[in-house]
Specification:
heterodimer, A: mainly beta, Rieske Iron-sulfur Protein, 1 helix, about 5% helix, globular, B: Rieske Iron-sulfur Protein, Naphthalene 1,2-dioxygenase Alpha Subunit, Chain A, domain 1, eight-stranded antiparallel beta sheet, four-stranded antiparallel beta sheet
Chain lengths: ~110, ~475
């Protein structure tokens, strides 16, 4: 079992916001958005909105969801499930662990 | 000047009026293909015969005529510097405030380089507003109609079903129309659609000396307390703008009940009723009037006690402390006005010839402790807030003037602006030209400048 990729310090991600991790680091097809909920928890989804070309890391994170900054589709932070139009496809989730203030990413592992 | 704001032409960052990567400044610069607006749609009237500034007479149709009003939007509002917001409303990229320039809706926002910019709040696709909120923080402005989305630099960054457009479609051509010049003076942000305006500071001229009496008490400048109050009044916007430029005359009559309420004995003192002072009239149409007295003071007791009048004398000089620092009124042409004594700044948004919207802020010195700020906020609210005891009197008078102004005979009878005719002079104490406290001098100056703009083709007119 892999110990994950250390991709950020917890302090790098303000609550309610996100940062994008480049695919050259994650080894995935898309960049991955690290999203920090207002309760402090950290989640990861494919960064590009499933509707149009927008970065979910630039979106609004609250109450277990991220809202796309362009057209306001919301995705569940945990499952990636799309909540409302105009997006119709779910976002791909990835597992995250926080250890000693560092954020570890497990690309393509289900949370 | 604030460091976060610069003239659009003075910065290399982003599109600017002098070298943008996309059309800026006016819808006239946008792709228009075969569109040509017939000149008959914008027929102009020679208003020379409606304003006799030298004789102090005004034709009442300037307050009521629909054609005059449409021409004002084109020739008075479009080319002039117009107040947008206070710099204290913008602290982080994405902070925004929506307002109007004339009847044009605009978004004022801080871009990613922390520069204050302003855009026409209208989608380039079907024309809906791309921001519906009064103020807030955002990362993009997305049209609610079809979802065209624009970033903080005004660029079109998302077009749903973009593949459906022809190859010639280039998002660079369809960014938000930017206000080409945005500048600030001591925290007050102004913008103009004029692609080649005089600098804001030059436009203000000697008026800046009078404004500094309110805005420059110390190095920290001013901040906004509370939100922006907005209310609708029946009445042409000029009724309010000219009154704040030129009218101390109405105070004892219009505000008699308010003055009585505020007088501890129930009888206003003679020195309040019989005041003398000066009224400044500016060649660009600005105006300011103020009583002059060595013991002039701020009305709110807590504010009065906090003010260090000796330090203010040192900084601003005796003439300002004994004049425009406290009681008084002022208008920056065309539609921005303020009252130093209670920190009220307001704009009179035109909404057709017969209606205006008043948008009013309360500003205080940034150096004021919380209890002094609160005292000033409450004092302003009680006197010149939407239900303030003075504000009510003024709104009632303007609506009264407007309500009857459409009568045919009524409308054809000239109005009198002759008080202080010929009294204008340089008084050696206050910069520029001044008249008596009770005078129509700044009113005549206001309408003289209005007449000049109304008769001057603006940059956007063909064959000018």
């Amino acid at each position: 079992m892999s110990s994950g990729i250390r991709v950020a310090s917890l302090d790098d991600i303000p609550e309610g916001e996100g940062i994008a991790i480049d695919k050259s680091v994650t080894g995935t097809a898309d960049d991955i958005a690290l999203l920090r909920d207002e309760d402090g928890s950290v989640w990861a989804l494919d960064d590009t909105c499933t509707h149009e070309d927008a970065s979910l890391a630039d979106g609004w994170v609250e109450g277990g969801y991220v809202e796309c900054p362009l057209h306001s589709s919301k995705f569940c932070l945990k499952s990636g499930e799309v909540q409302n139009l105009p997006a119709t496809k779910n976002a791909c989730p990835h597992r995250v662990e926080v250890r000693d203030g560092e954020v570890y990413l497990f690309p393509n592992e289900a949370p | 000047m604030s460091s976060i704001i610069e003239p659009a032409t003075g910065s290399g960052a982003g599109p600017s009026a002098s070298g943008g990567e996309r059309p800026v400044g006016a819808a006239t610069a946008a792709p228009r293909g075969a569109l040509r607006r017939p000149v008959e749609m914008n027929r102009n009237i020679d208003v020379s015969g409606l304003v006799d500034a030298e004789g102090g007479l005004l034709d009442r149709s300037v307050f009521t005529d629909e054609q005059v009003y449409r021409q004002e939007l084109r020739r008075v509002f479009a080319p002039s510097w117009l107040f947008l917001a206070h710099t204290d409303q913008f602290h982080k990229p994405g902070d925004f405030f929506t307002t109007y320039m004339g009847e044009d809706p605009v978004i004022v926002t801080m871009d990613r380089n922390r520069r204050i910019r302003a855009y026409l709040n209208s989608c380039r696709h079907r024309g809906a507003r791309v921001c519906r909120a009064d103020s807030g923080a955002t990362r993009n402005f997305t049209c609610t109609y079809h979802g065209w989305s624009f970033d903080l630099e005004g660029k079109l960054v998302s077009v749903p079903n973009k593949g459906g457009y022809p190859e010639s479609f280039d998002t660079k051509d369809w960014g938000l129309v930017e206000v080409p010049h945005v500048e600030s003076y001591r925290g007050l942000i102004f913008g103009t659609w004029n692609p080649e305006p005089v600098a804001l500071r030059e436009y203000l001229g000697d008026m800046a000396w009078y404004m500094d009496a309110m805005l420059d008490h110390d190095d920290e400048g001013t901040v906004v307390v509370g939100g922006v109050h907005k209310w609708v009044l029946e009445g042409n916007w000029k009724l309010a703008a000219e009154q704040f430029a030129t009218d101390w005359y109405h105070v004892n009559m219009s505000h008699t009940s308010a003055l009585t309420v505020l007088a501890p004995s129930g009888k206003p003192k003679a020195e309040i009723v019989h005041r003398t002072g000066r009224q400044y009239t500016d060649p660009n149409g600005h105006g300011a009037g103020f009583p002059v007295h060595p013991r002039n003071r701020f009305d709110a007791q807590t504010v009065h006690k906090w003010m260090d009048y000796d330090a203010l004398r040192e900084r601003l000089g005796e003439a300002r402390v004994e004049g425009p620092l406290t009681n008084g009124h002022a208008t920056v042409f065309p539609n921005f006005s303020y009252l130093p004594v209670n920190g009220s700044i307001r704009i009179w948004h035109p909404k057709g010839p017969d209606r205006m919207e008043v948008w009013a802020w309360t500003i205080v010195d940034a150096s004021m402790p919380p209890e002094v700020r609160e005292a000033q906020r409450l004092y302003n609210l009680r006197t010149f807030g939407p239900s303030g005891i003075f504000e009510q009197d003024d709104g009632e008078n303007w609506s009264e003037c407007q309500a009857i102004a459409h009568g045919f005979i009524t409308n054809s009878v000239p109005l009198n602006y002759q008080m202080g005719l010929g009294s204008e002079r340089e008084d050696g104490r206050h910069p520029g030209t001044t008249s008596e406290l009770y005078s129509d001098a700044a009113g005549r100056g206001f309408y003289r400048h209005w007449r000049e703009l109304m008769n001057t083709p603006a940059w956007h007119e063909e064959n000018r």
